[in-house]
Amino acid sequence: MERLYRDFLFVILAFVVVTCMINISSVFRCTSSKQDSSNVLPCVVSPMSCTSHSDSANQRAPLSNLTLVWDATSGEDRIEQQINYKPEVDLSRNRIILITGSGDFDVPRGQEKFIQDGCSIKNCEIHRDDKQKVKVDARLFNMMISYNELSIIKRKPGEIWIMYILEGPLATNDYVLLGDVFNWTASFRHDSTIVTPYEKWLPYTNKKNQTLKNYAAGKKKMAAIFVSNCDTSNNRMGYVNELQKYLSVDVYGACGFKQCDRSSELHCFEMLRKDYKFYLAFENSNCRDYITEKFFRNALISCTVDGYNPPSCDHTTITVQQNERNKYDVLPVTMGAHPDDYKRSAPPNSFIHVEDFESPKHLASYLKYLDENDEQYNEYFKWKGTGDFINTKFWCRLCAMLNDLKKPNLVVQDLGAWWRKPNICIRGDQRWRR
Length: 434
Hints:
Helix 6 packs across helix 10. The chain is built from 13 helices and 15 strands. A 6-stranded parallel beta sheet has the order 2-1-3-4-5-6. The relative contact order is 0.18. The N and C termini lie far apart (53 Å). By secondary structure, it is an alpha/beta fold. It has helices spanning 2-31, 67-70, 79-83, 112-116, 147-151, 236-243, 265-275, 293-300, 339-345, 360-372, 374-378, 394-403, 415-419; strands at 95-100, 124-127, 138-142, 160-165, 184-187, 194-195, 201-203, 221-226, 249-252, 276-282, 286-287, 331-335, 352-353, 387-389, 425-426.
């Protein structure tokens, strides 16, 4: 019996020793990262990353005055704080941002983008290859980068590696082998280092007077959807088919019987604005924070020539004048991200979410009610004139944060686990839990 007791104590002691060794090893791995260790905050060990992507606030060391900019666990996108951030910098040389792999990012080489966007810190240059053998400060990787491609890249001391992702988790690689590789993330997710949403709504400090009108006037048709991908993880077409049993829904594209030529998108959206009361802004997957141009560009805003051109318009040929903005005047019905994500990203009371209804039949009943009650329908347009969609200045924020002499030393310990952690996406037969 005494021997059994000694063996038990030995097992407990061995477990404690092994646990301590693992923690010490993790700390060493973080603090000996390939990024410069001078003038940076210490790396904080967490289950998934160093500081940046921890799920538990009490596992993080405080970042003092840097918290608002760098704290990816805050639940906020921190876009405004990052735009206005003026860190302590060394302007003796330009910082080089190298776009690596197949990603094009549709930005000019050199400093043009930083000057064009009116960045407060402009000493950054964009390069697309490293043949010039310049000192690289940051490498920006497209979401489709593979483990094999990364394995042949020789990483130099001081480089910050950034994963840039705009597609949902179900449409990307699983990144299962990419642990301890990237320092920062840039995606639509609110727990990214640099949040890059398709759009960012910001209310005015002083609300402008609204031009009240009847947004239902002249609209004779109920609902429309533009869709060509018919087989999706959230079964959006199954929902549409069920909805059509109770409500008139016109389906444009490969998944329906109506066509609107993609070469004349402006005409399609003008038709949508004039003829339809509702637009089904259904994403191809139901994932947290994943809200694309289907919601923003197709329903709430239009593309411009003068002034700010929304990010969701970057890859389209639509060009209309500034005074045409916010003119689509159609009420979006959404499927995709969690309802709370839409509330955080969109103007208040500007959309209807399918999650708020027990079934397509119940949704159809409510849309019919709005169709017969113009006053209630117009409640969804009272946000107009109370704010605007702003330029999120991704490249300005990247440059400022890259220059920050006190930036924390971040390492994403398991990119795959972070990107596809539990409850990030749900299937079509599941519902978001409030």
